């Protein structure tokens, strides 16, 4: 197993309290808002599947489907999914999944959010490189999305209470 090709890791320092970051991660509806999935009325429950329509431009024809693995309040949220499963003609259900983990850590300036996705070495060879490359790029974008979402929510909260 080659760790360089099996695992994607991203970190972002968010200028928000751990409880605020946790809320936009573990609350399925809020997660969907920044991640680009319609998850209204959904919840993340360990051991259960969560599905929703993707709202990201160009991918609206796809369903997002994850198996929630762990929900440890204000510390860890993880799920399994089929990486870059974007061809509606293909049944990915028999393929191995990758594990996506979000971990939170207090820092002086806010909260460090670490995201990792591992298990690419088990993805079928024909899809492995592209799935890794696309998800790697995707996590860059999602780290920006959650950061912007937290900033926008803080600003709208200040406007509402001020």
Give a quick rundown of the structure.
This protein has 162 residues and is an alpha+beta fold. It has helices at 3-6, 18-26, 28-35, 125-161, and strands at 7-14, 37-38, 49-54, 63-72, 76-81, 98-107, 110-118.
List the helices and strands and how they pair.
Layout: H1 3-6, E1 7-14, H2 18-26, H3 28-35, E2 37-38, E3 49-54, E4 63-72, E5 76-81, E6 98-107, E7 110-118, H4 125-161
Antiparallel strand pairs: 1-7, 2-3, 3-4, 4-5, 5-6, 6-7
Helix pairs in contact: 2-3, 3-4
Q: Helix content range of the residues, please?
A: 25-40%
Computed structural class: alpha+beta
Could you tell me the mean pLDDT? 93
Q: How many distinct helices?
A: 4
Strand order of the largest sheet: 1-7-6-5-4-3-2
Binned strand content:
25-35%
CATH class: Alpha Beta
Shape: globular
CATH topology: Alpha-D-Glucose-1,6-Bisphosphate, Chain A, domain 4
CATH homology superfamily name: START domain
Alpha carbon gyration radius? 16 Å
Distance between the termini: 54 Å
Which CATH architecture is right? 2-Layer Sandwich
Task: Give an overview of the whole structure.
With 162 residues, this protein is an alpha+beta fold. The chain has helices at 3-6, 18-26, 28-35, 125-161, and strands at residues 7-14, 37-38, 49-54, 63-72, 76-81, 98-107, 110-118. The model has no long low-confidence stretch (mean pLDDT 93). Helices cover 36% and strands 31% of the residues. The chain has one domain (7-161): Alpha-D-Glucose-1,6-Bisphosphate, Chain A, domain 4 (2-Layer Sandwich), CATH 3.30.530.
